Amino acid sequence: MPSDPMSGHGERVDDATSAHDLLAAIERRTTPHRSGKRIALDCSDCDPSLVFHADGRTVERILFSLVADAANFSRPDGRITVSTALLSREVAAFIVTDSGIGMTVDELAVLFEPVARRGAPLADDADDELPMPACRQLARSIGGDLVATSRPDVGSAFTLVLPLAH
């Protein structure tokens, strides 16, 4: 199988990925993004026992991008909440909510539209934050989806839906 340039690594691997491992990695990896603005990360409403049928590196990359982006748009002393929700016997979701600046209806309408990139390749380093269209594309490539809601001056919520392992 060919390499996926957005994933930052070679072949796609379907495996079981635990919410516990993902949350620990996101806590560690996003600390530099949050610490300068003293932004708290609250994962207390997560079910760490959930196990997803998805490549862990890809899911971690998407979650990292969502939390890092939330930190970028949050005010100092803000809060980012990561929670999980069991949507059915087949799928569950991570919900990343921030207390940031939020988006207007018009901004939200184009959030996932591909952006023309002149001369600059899409970030291919696994430590780079991905743009939202790339996050959605990656989510869909592993059998999931990414949707968002937002209110100006209140914040945004991103829901990453993923298949569960059985």
General description of the model:
With 166 residues, this protein is of the alpha+beta class. The protein has a single domain, classed as Histidine kinase-like ATPase, C-terminal domain (Heat Shock Protein 90). The protein contains 4 helices and 7 strands, in the order βαββαββααββ. A hairpin with a 3-residue loop joins strand 6 (145-151) and strand 7 (155-163).
Short descriptors:
166 residues; alpha+beta; Heat Shock Protein 90; five-stranded mixed sheet
List the helices and strands and how they pair.
Elements: E1 16-18, H1 19-35, E2 40-42, E3 51-53, H2 56-72, E4 79-86, E5 91-98, H3 105-110, H4 132-141, E6 145-151, E7 155-163
Helix pairs in contact: 1-2, 2-4
Quick summary:
The protein has helices at 19-35, 56-72, 105-110, 132-141; strands at 16-18, 40-42, 51-53, 79-86, 91-98, 145-151, 155-163. It is α+β, with helices and mostly antiparallel strands and 166 residues long. The strands form 2 sheets. A 5-stranded mixed beta sheet has the order 2-4-5-7-6, covered by helices on one side. A two-stranded antiparallel sheet has the order 1-3.
Number of separate strands: 7
Global morphology: globular
Percent of residues in helices: 25-40%
Q: Strand order, main sheet: write it out.
A: 2-4-5-7-6
Q: Any idea of the CATH topology? A: Heat Shock Protein 90
Radius of gyration over all CA atoms, rounded: 15 Å
Which blocks of ≥5 consecutive residues have pLDDT under 50? Answer: 1-14, 116-124
CATH class: Alpha Beta
Number of helices: 4
Count of folded domains: 1
For this entry, what is the oligomeric state of its chains?
A: single chain
Largest sheet, in brief, is: 5 strands, mixed
- The averaged pLDDT comes out at 86
SSE pattern: EHEEHEEHHEE
Strand percent estimate: 15-25%
Going by helix content, strand content and strand pairing, the class is alpha+beta
Query: What is the first-to-last residue Cα distance?
Result: 25 Å
